[in-house]
TrEMBL record:
SUPFAM superfamilies (UniProt xref): PLP-dependent transferases (SSF53383)
Alphabetized InterPro entries for the sequence: Aminotrans_V_dom, PyrdxlP-dep_Trfase, PyrdxlP-dep_Trfase_major, PyrdxlP-dep_Trfase_small
Keyword Transferase tagged: yes
Domain Aminotransferase class V span(s) in chain numbering: 128-303
Entry's Gene Ontology molecular function annotations: transaminase activity
Keywords: Aminotransferase, Transferase
Organism of derivation: Streptomyces physcomitrii
Source organism phylogeny: Bacteria, Bacillati, Actinomycetota, Actinomycetes, Kitasatosporales
Name of the protein in question: Aminotransferase class V-fold PLP-dependent enzyme
Length: 363
């Protein structure tokens, strides 16, 4: 079936795939699964190989410099000063850190069906009051006494985008802090982390990095967090903080650093540079054009996606069971909460969209 007339024109989409992005990626299949894990660019693979070889030869490169370069690159993408960025490995770790800072009895407002890492640490603390409402009702559900609103900017299961402006306004009106998980957002969604108290992120999805790279952003006043899992890297002078208790914590968000997975950060440094070089506006336009093309094609074949306008993630209810067959056919998508989930990113093209639509039309 010819889907070329469905949705946006293919020109801009092909232009991005054929430019710098096209030089960095060579997937062997139709890969539409960035919401699970992004592809590593060639420059990251080369840097990773060089760094691993240096370790094997007993002459390791300075990969701590890569951590700092990755932190700075992330700060630019997130639109915050680098002093507000902590480098770690996982969303759950940093959400847990935020959970430990809340007083007993504090109310945390979360969204139904949000990703476990973004909400479970609050449930683990039995003395917190965790209130859960539908995503669309988050803003209206903030009330006096709400201490923290914790929500993903984009829902993992189906791609719905939170009304972040409304959530931010409601939280400010009631004196609540905000914690936004941008793991499914930063890399394609226009997002300014400086407008929120805390943001958490893993970089192995839309930021094209290996697992083991994550980030936390905090307010200028550090948000009342205590560096409860701090090791030597959290010291103002890390290499002078190796023995005994840390006598002076970093005066920036670096006090919340985890001991870094150095090889992963070496690769991440170059992936973040690539995203920055291409530019988030260009990536956003490209990704959304592909997603719109897919939605239009679904309409032509009588399939109804989960309503998620303006999202690079498109999910089709009830079709998650098709994922194994599609994988065997060379098209990589996800089965999430019973949905067939497709995610469109800078290395995808209109031809990728049309191949998935062909499979769905024949299913």
């Amino acid at each position: 079936m010819d889907f070329r007339s469905a949705g946006a024109q293919s020109g801009p989409m092909e232009n991005l795939a054929g430019s710098l992005a096209g030089e960095q990626f060579a997937p062997r299949s139709t890969y539409l699964n960035t919401a699970s894990a992004g592809l590593l660019p060639a420059r990251s693979v080369a840097a990773l190989h060089e760094a691993a070889q240096s370790v094997a030869e007993g002459a390791p490169l300075d990969m701590f410099a890569d951590v700092e370069a990755a932190r700075a690159g992330y700060a630019r993408l997130a639109q915050v000063p680098v002093e507000r960025v902590a480098a770690g490995s996982s969303v759950a770790t940093y959400v847990g850190l935020i959970a430990t800072s809340l007083p007993s009895g504090a109310e945390v407002l979360t969204a139904e069906g949000d990703f476990a890492s973004a909400v479970n640490p609050f449930h683990v603390r039995a003395d917190l009051k965790v209130r859960t409402v539908p995503l669309e009702r988050i803003a209206e559900s903030v009330r006096p006494g709400t201490a923290l609103v914790a929500v993903s900017a984009v829902q993992s299961a189906d791609g719905r985008v939170a009304d972040l402006a409304a959530i931010r306004s409601a939280a400010a009106a009631h004196g609540a802090r905000t914690c936004i998980d941008v793991s499914q957002a930063l890399g394609w969604l226009d997002f300014d982390a400086g407008q929120y108290d805390f943001t958490v992120d893993v970089a192995y999805k839309w930021l094209l990095s290996p697992r083991g790279v994550g980030f936390l952003t905090v307010p200028e006043d550090l948000g009342g967090l205590s560096p409860v899992f701090a090791g030597w890297v959290a010291g103002e002078s890390p290499f002078d903080s190796c023995y005994g208790p840390v006598t002076e914590f970093a005066r920036s968000a670096r006090r919340f650093d985890e001991s870094p997975s150095l090889l992963s950060f070496t690769a991440a440094r170059h992936a973040l540079d690539l995203v920055e070089e291409i530019g988030l506006p260009a990536i956003r336009a490209h990704d959304l054009a592909l997603a719109d093309r897919f939605r239009a094609g679904l309409d032509r074949i009588g399939r109804e996606p989960v309503p998620a306008p303006g999202s690079a993630i498109v999910s089709v209810p009830g079709l998650g069971g098709l994922q194994p067959a599609f994988q065997e056919a060379g098209v990589s998508v996800s089965d999430r909460a019973g949905n067939l989930r497709a995610a469109f990113h800078l290395y995808n093209s209109a031809a990728d969209v049309d191949r998935l639509l062909d499979l769905l039309a024949a299913a």
